[in-house]
Amino acid sequence: MYPMLKPALRRAWCAQGTVQFGVTAAHAVKLGPMDIATGCFLELLDGTRGLPLLCEEARALDLSDHQVDTLIRRLLDAGLIDDVRAAGPETDALRNRPDAMERYRPDLASLSVVHPEPGGGMRRLAARRAMRVQVRGAGRVGATIAAVLSGSGVGRVEVLDGGCTEPWDVSPGGLPAAAVGERRATAARQLVRRSAAGPAPRTAETAEVSAGCEPGLSLIVVAPRDGLAVYVPDPRPAEPWIASGTPHLYAGVMEATGVVGPLVLPGGTACAGCLALKRVERDKDWSRMLSQWRSGRRAAVQACDLALATAVAGLAAAHALSFLDGELPTSTGARWEAALPLLDWRSERIGAHPDCYCGAAGHTEGERASAVHDTMAG
Q: Domain with 59 in it: what CATH number?
């Protein structure tokens, strides 16, 4: 191991010889007491020295091997030590691509803060390269989500949509103005390719694709251009995803209202069917109105403010990446909403409905969600 203090966490000396690592409340840690010699030793933890060399240089600071061992153990327990040489074939393959690593440096720094174990950030960044995510929709929200996921290291990002790119599909983080008139699917593939840090890795999974075997989806992001399909998702398209156990996340904009969630873990959290049943219970006229909304002509351009669409895409991509990295983000079994002009993001839990075919009801939701997620991660 070549210990390195996580460079993303800024250090500051407090009173009584205490050092604070990090600025924000979510990740800051205080350790003490520390003297001048210990403070000087911290400067040696830059990832260039193994433990034997660290002990040797610490002796020049009048620090014993026991003191070094104790300090490093305390730093490890506090999640402040990273291992720049984290082992594994996936991490080695990524580390051998310096062009990609330069692109990923901010992402790796963030992952090292969020995941405290040494090498945890590198291992998760490398794991993303083997994942396959499908984005359904190439409008202002969907195309930007696809670009962010590809640029964040997800190895295979597919975008499904029909028709040709319209001027109002264009966004700074999504489809460019040059794509107007092109088929959306083609323009989205080019966007994903441009956003990636080099070509996707050739692994056993890509070999399977060339042999005609499609690898499983890690996640589906439902981000259609018609925001109604996210605000009031139709359960029918999700039936095969529920049957196959494929996680899926809804995101979009409807009438100047941004929506992210729910993230559905089939059999573990509420799905689109649960949401539909609950809406009908709350409003006896809901089914009648919904049939009119879905069947009416939709010639008008969607009310999808560019800034709001970009915010929704960013939040949805962050939730998707959190899930792909092994966490359960707050959109799991819940949805986040914010409407212009106040943009007050609010979260609403969506409970599983006992009459829904998904089978998520009848158990403690958190336990079921964790169990389902652990099963998929394994």
A: 3.90.930.60
